[in-house]
Amino acid sequence: MKRTSPALFSVALAALLVCGLHAQKRSLTHADYDGWRHVQNQHLSNDGAFLAYALFPQEGDGLLIVRNLQTGKEFRESIGQLPPPPPPNFAAPEDEPPQPRGITVAFTRDSKTLVFSTFPAKADVDQAKKDKKKPADGPKNGLRIMNLTSGDVVRVERVKNFQVPSAGDGFLAYLHESEVAAKDGEAKAEKPEKKKEYGGDLVIRNLTSGDDRTFHDVLEFAFAKDAGTLVYAVSSKSEESNGVYSVTPGGYAPPKTLVSGRGKFSKLAWDESQDELGFYGGAETKLYLWRRDSAAAAVLVSGATPGFPTGSILSDKSNITFSKDGQHVFFGCAPKTTADKPDATPQEDRVSVDLWSWIDD
């Protein structure tokens, strides 16, 4: 009997393996890409017992997964389709590209509740496109409140943003999208004047009892870290109601008026110790300061303040920040602009041109 040499056997075996691998290999398709998923927004609870993260496919609705690291048990909740990233600024190609969008995830300090935002579901987005709805009328982001003991979820729709106090327990505040702003904006679309932004409903939820307290026409809000005070700015169609108010979560006393009157009030900012709050406001923008133990806010800086730059105004487009020790506050100002005079040139003498540059399509 003729024996096969070991070297020849090894070569034959290698050839068979290579042929087998080539037979199994295939090209990737778009269906394969659609199956890929990526992780975002990883968060660990304060007690280290829970890990939460978002899992998004290339196309379709994502999941928020919460894993109990001690037992291995998982809770899952659909969080809608990840929207495309904002378009780059072609007018300034040297700028950093815009950051991709993501949901907001927050554990309460006591690690009993998880709160997270959601995007509209893919089916709802596709249907809105078919119906040719405007963005103001299309599906909106939502909010989910998950009990980490039972896995029960409270679902809230049309939520703009939310806050969970970082050093206090038992409360959550969230702001609904304003329906008045969209309707009012459509009604005034024919006018060239600047569209006013109106507030929506602010809800303070007691996470222990499940009770809610609602405040109307709220533009923005700021929770103190200890959850003892919540401050909110009102932007109403009745401008006399505009202003900044404070309320104690868990109580039912009427809100305290820090300042009220015509104009827009915005950019609420606590200092490091949470004892002082700065904000812009008024018909002519001023910088206000409120001390938490005071009855009302006081004007800190205005255009008439000694040393304020001549020919400038306070800019409510700039954020307000405090120094670490709370002894200094930083704010923005901008050159004062004058209203453009109407063009008196006869219509037949006006020149109309189209300007193009190398960055245009």
Overview of the structural elements:
With 361 residues, the protein is mainly beta. 12% of the residues lie in helices and 35% in strands. The chain contains four helices and 23 strands. It has helices at 6-24, 30-35, 122-130, 179-187, and strands at residues 37-44, 50-57, 61-68, 74-81, 105-107, 113-118, 142-147, 153-156, 159-163, 171-176, 200-206, 212-223, 230-234, 243-247, 256-260, 266-270, 276-281, 286-291, 298-301, 312-314, 321-322, 329-330, 333-335. It has a seven-stranded antiparallel β-sheet. It has a four-stranded antiparallel β-sheet with strand order 1-2-3-4, with no helix packed on it. The protein is globular, with a radius of gyration of 28 Å.
Q: Structural class from helices and strands?
A: mainly beta
Q: Which outline best applies?
A: globular
Describe the sheet with the most strands. Answer: 7 strands, antiparallel
Q: Kindly estimate the percentage of residues that lie in beta strands according to DSSP.
A: 35-45%
Q: How many helical stretches?
A: 4
End-to-end distance: 79 Å
- What is the helix content? 10-25%
* Helix-strand string: HHEEEEEEHEEEEHEEEEEEEEEEEEE
Strand arrangement across the biggest beta sheet: 9-10-11-12-13-14-15
Our Rg estimate from Cα atoms comes to 28 Å
Low-confidence region ranges:
185-192
Q: How many E strands?
A: 23
* pLDDT averaged residue by residue: 87
